[in-house]
Design brief:
Strand content: 15-25%
Number of helices: 7
CATH architecture of the largest domain: 3-Layer(aba) Sandwich
Low-confidence stretches: none
CATH topology of the largest domain: Rossmann fold
Oligomer: single chain
CATH superfamily of the largest domain: P-loop containing nucleotide triphosphate hydrolases
Order of helices and strands: EEEHEEEHHHEHEHEEH
Helix content: 25-40%
Distance between the termini: 30 Å
Length: 243
């Protein structure tokens, strides 16, 4: 489905990422963790065509990803909502770009908002929403276009701990219904264990893949409190401490 093949990226003459390879199958999720500044966000931008690798290539269903595509959605840390548009219009924005009719855009936006518990705020503006509510709108917008691939760049890092945990569970619930393959960049090991069927660890300078761990308990909302979850968190911490 998605293949990252020997990706490398340089900035100002310095190699940030080197020889990064992995594959993502149907209905699979991958969490990417690593030290700050190791190029995790740069990797996401290459996966969606916003940044071109200096070496290697990204393939989606066997086709090169060389520019932004309508079938790849990305959820950002700062939500990326347009403050002058209503919640409904923000969710429908990608559908408008795709040429979907106004009536169909409205219906689809309201279905997604209802799914995220935000339908009653459809006529409000982003500035009137809490951070958690804005991120719910961003998630609804990302799913409205029925993407082939979902990318998430630390989407909950600016939220308080309780809201963050609630949205992690919301994201997991939506994934169970939609089964959209996704790549999540996060600094939170707990979040990686909650939302990643596999967890890729980047490290070094330049950053390269250090480990890719399977998460057999993925999908269990209580995983973080189980012996299996504790064991995986421990392995992740030891791996990162050894970088």
């Amino acid at each position: 489905m998605l293949e990252a093949d020997s990706l490398s990226r340089r900035f100002d003459g310095r190699t940030v990422l080197d020889n990064v390879s992995f594959s993502l199958g149907e209905e699979e999720t991958l969490a990417v963790v690593g030290p700050s500044g190791c190029g995790k966000t740069t990797l996401l931008y290459m996966l969606c065509g916003l940044s071109a690798p200096d070496a290697g290539q990204v393939l989606l269903d066997g086709n090169p990803v060389s520019r932004p595509r309508n079938d790849i959605s990305i959820i950002l840390q700062d939500y990326g909502l347009l403050p002058w548009k209503t919640v409904r219009d923000n969710v429908a924005m990608g559908l408008k770009v795709q040429g979907v009719s106004k009536a169909k855009r409205r219906r689809e936006a309201e279905v997604r908002l209802d799914e995220l518990g935000m339908l009653e705020r459809a006529d409000d503006y982003p500035g009137t929403l809490s951070g958690g509510e804005q991120q719910r709108v961003a998630i609804a917008r990302a799913f409205a276009t029925r993407p082939r691939l979902m990318l998430l760049d630390e989407p909950f890092s600016s939220l308080d701990a309780l809201t963050r945990e609630k949205l992690q569970q919301t994201m997991l619930d939506v994934w169970k219904r939609r089964r959209v393959p996704s790549v999540l960049v996060t600094h939170s090991l707990e979040e990686a264990v909650t939302l990643g069927r596999r967890i890729l660890v980047l490290g070094g300078s330049p950053a390269t893949p250090v480990a890719c761990l399977d998460n057999p308990g993925f999908g269990d909302p209580a995983l973080k409190t189980t012996p299996e979850g504790f064991a995986l968190l421990g392995e992740l911490r030891r791996t990162l401490e050894g970088i």
